[in-house]
TrEMBL record:
GO terms for cellular component: plasma membrane. Residues 134-178 are annotated as: Disordered. Pfam families: Cu_bind_like. It comes from the Eukaryota. CDD domains: Phytocyanin. This is Phytocyanin domain-containing protein.
């Protein structure tokens, strides 16, 4: 299992490299099978093993037109070499597949016997670099609306018609001590904040 661990480490390192390079890397085109192209007798598992594909890249399948097909299939159909339910298929001889989504993509040749003889390709596509998240707009009201009535602490004996009075302490205690006054101011502030919220909710 030592080699498996090393593989995992190598894969993790590769992912880090991809993540750090994705910001500047441009879309790449990969010729499947390199000089062998898309044909029987080529090990595409080995070919794909060191490819660092990402969204935006393209796979280019080159083959004699009509001699093979390039069919994108599901994982299950890849495993069973079934081309009866292809996601896309082409037999032009020069098939370019743009990799538009991250994750696994599976391709097989639909000609009888070719897939089961190894003409199948599975690739793992990494997500393109995510754009930096835009800063969230702050919903906090920084300014007091013009319609805000005077605070209860400064309204003297006049009883405000606002919810702020609910939280305001009795006016007699406001002059009792500095601490009580501070508390009253804080409570009044809470009341005003509630009123502002109520105004913004359209209750007034
Ligand atoms: Cu084929």
């Amino acid at each position: 299992m030592g080699s498996g661990g090393a593989w995992l480490l190598a894969s993790s390192a590769a992912l880090l490299v991809i993540a750090s390079c994705a910001l500047t890397a441009s879309a790449a085109k990969y010729t499947v099978g390199d000089t062998s192209g898309w044909t029987t007798g080529t090990d595409y598992t080995t070919w794909a093993s060191d490819k660092k594909l990402k969204v935006g890249d393209s796979l280019v399948f080159t083959y004699a037109g009509g001699a093979h097909t390039v069919a994108e299939v599901s994982a299950a159909d890849y495993a069973s070499c079934s081309s009866s339910n292809t996601l896309s298929s082409d037999a032009s001889g020069a098939t370019t597949v743009a990799l538009k989504t991250a994750g696994k993509h599976y391709f097989i040749c639909g000609v009888a016997g070719h897939c089961s003889n190894g003409m199948k390709l599975a690739v793992d596509v990494a997500a393109a670099a995510a754009a930096a998240p835009a800063p969230k707009a702050s919903p906090t009201p920084d300014t007091t609306p013009d319609t805000t009535p005077t605070t209860p602490s400064s309204s003297g004996g006049v009883t405000p018609k606002t919810p702020a009075t609910v939280l305001a302490p009795p006016t007699a205690k406001q002059s009792a001590s500095g601490t009580t006054g501070l508390r009253a101011t804080a409570l009044a502030g809470l009341g005003v904040a509630g009123l502002v919220a109520a105004v913004q909710l359209g209750l007034f």
